[in-house]
TrEMBL record:
Lineage: Eukaryota, Viridiplantae, Streptophyta, Embryophyta, Tracheophyta
A Pfam family of this chain: ENOD93
Species per Swiss-Prot/TrEMBL record: Sesamum alatum
Alphabetical keyword list: Membrane, Transmembrane, Transmembrane helix
Protein name (database record): Early nodulin-93
Transmembrane segments: 36-56, 68-87
InterPro entries from the UniProt entry: Enod93 (IPR005050)
Coiled-coil intervals, chain numbering: none
Protein origin, superkingdom: Eukaryota
PANTHER family in alphabetical order: EARLY NODULIN-93
Amino acid sequence: MARNVAESPLERSSTLVSLDQKLALAKRCSHEGVMAGAKAAVVATIATAIPTMASVRMVPWAKAHLNPTAQALIISTVAGMAYFIVADKTVLATARRNSFNSH
């Protein structure tokens, strides 16, 4: 039902405080996602680079077909996928946790 009475300044300020709290919570949530994603990307880069470089040196097919651009593409693709998957899962988990805490 629509209210015909104008909001009081107290109601308006409490709405702004609530909005500021939600914005701060969203920023913290996204920051946690970025940090977790970056950590996962670093681990994935190392975990992919070692076997890729080793296989290029030891496996004849890989030595013949995987030039440095292909090696970089393999490693960066895995790092990017790890970043986005972990960041997305972290943001969703944090948002879910915060939504349960607010009720």
